[in-house]
Amino acid sequence: MSETVTQGIRIIVRPQYVADQSDPAAGHYLFAYHITIRNEGERTVQLLSRHWVITNGEGHVEEVRGPGVVGYQPVLQPGEQFQYTSGCPLGTPVGTMHGEFNMVVPDTRESFDALISPFTLAAPRSLN
């Protein structure tokens, strides 16, 4: 799990190994991650884009960038939150992810990156 607050935006990540969609014998491990984005600040914000840095257990790094999350660019008023679940395939039983969500304040067009602290993706040891 990871939890980070940037300019009043709290991002909580809970990773989970998805055993029924993984095939360790073939070197295929699927992980889900559950994200909560909570606006604890005093300004309305909109999530515009995402940037993920994914590192597998062998040190191979992949970066993923794109608009929004799961097809949405949510607007969060103070006190509101947005939750979603996505997934990440890895060729190793352990890896890490971190990144940021680019946010904008609609009233002022000020933008900032809400950081996502590193978190570990790990299959249960009995499967490795």
UniProtKB/TrEMBL annotation:
Residues in ApaG domain copies: 3-128
HAMAP family: ApaG (MF_00791)
Protein name as catalogued: Protein ApaG
Pfam families per record: DUF525
UniProt source species: Solimonas fluminis
Gene name per UniProt: apaG
NCBIfam families recorded: PRK05461.1
